[in-house]
Write a structure and sequence with these properties.
Helix content: under 10%
Number of domains: 1
CATH class: Mainly Beta
CATH topology: Porin
CATH architecture: Beta Barrel
Strand content: over 45%
Distance between the termini: 10 Å
Number of helices: 1
Number of strands: 10
Largest sheet: 10 strands, antiparallel
Radius of gyration: 15 Å
Order of helices and strands: EEEEEEEHEEE
Length: about 150
């Protein structure tokens, strides 16, 4: 059986400037955002994105944050993935420039956990996201993997 992708939600995750840990590690504070698409709500401030940056510019991403879904409650998001692309594109992203998301690869595997009434099905699914890095946020299109 070939898995199918079904749109689940879209996220616009607002971020603060990076906190450099060392030459290859940094932390990106999550300061808010919005949830749209199949679900609506907001991204709560206080989460973060831990990033490992490799010498070739490739980036491992591990984000952990919380959504507040309208009329339901909170959902924990754990997202692991990677971003890579041509050096000039990665350099433009690092400078905070807007870049065509088709010019680089940004994908994550997403797990959701919740005790919110009406959202329990989220606990039993895997999702994948296609990401886009904008100057002040990360945009994610999240798809349920069936």
């Amino acid at each position: 059986m070939t898995p199918a992708l079904t749109p689940l939600m879209t996220l616009e995750v607002l971020v603060a400037p990076p906190v450099q840990i060392d030459a290859g590690r940094r932390f990106i504070p999550i300061v808010g955002g919005t949830v749209g698409g199949g679900l609506t709500g907001k991204v709560l401030a206080g989460g973060g994105d831990w990033q490992s940056i490799w010498p070739d510019g490739r980036m491992d991403i591990a984000a952990h944050y919380v959504l507040q879904i309208d009329g339901h409650g909170t959902v924990e998001v754990a997202s692991d993935g990677l971003r890579h692309g041509p050096p000039a594109v990665l350099e433009a992203l690092a400078r905070g420039e807007s870049v065509d998301p088709a010019s680089y690869y940004f994908r994550t595997a997403v797990r959701l956990r919740t005790a919110a009434p009406g959202l329990s099905r989220l606990n039993a699914l895997m999702a994948v996201a296609v990401g886009e890095r904008a100057p002040d946020c990360v945009r994610l299109r999240v798809f349920e993997l069936s």
